[in-house]
Amino acid sequence: MTRQAAAVKADPKEEIIAAADEILAKAGASAATVRAITALAGVNTASINYHFGSRDGLFVVVCGRRMQPANQEILQTLQALDERGAPPDVAEIFRPLVDTAFHIWVNDSVLKALRSLLFTSPETADRLNVTAMSEVYDRMRAALMRACPHLNAQQVRQRFAFSIGAIMNQVYSRDAHLQGIYSDSSPDELVDFIAAGFRG
Q1: CA-based angle 185:65:50, to the nearest 5?
Q2: Model-level pTM?
Q3: CATH no. for residue 24?
């Protein structure tokens, strides 16, 4: 029975997202073809383009939804740092994101399935950053401006971009087919490495 038959008034967009999520979790990105997703969702193949623009657009939405609870926790932590009054430490700003990377991004089956797509398609990675991570990244950069008065906005942006690259490198290195190629760091080591890059 298709998902659509199971729910009389199902929202086709939500059915597509749920189908993609299920296939990615169980069988990986290579199995999550337009035909497989739409068959499970009980919709026609044009539905993905209609609702998401493309399969990659769908994957960006799926990724963003998987990341949303962790992103909310990061934003709450940043808000608490703001309310504390004293300028935050760089390590405090990056710690929630690094912890999320090591404990959620690395282990979530859907995010793991989509990782190779994000690394091989800069356009898809950019869309994900804009749609799923922009608020987190904006708040982190604002906190870094307060934490690092010795750096100008351009210097903070450059160091921030480098730091995100370092985090994603460590996430990617946890994938089984790449173990031994990249060096693995602990969360503490990575936070220390990032914080060092913001010192004067």
Answers
A1: 130
A2: 0.83
A3: 1.10.10
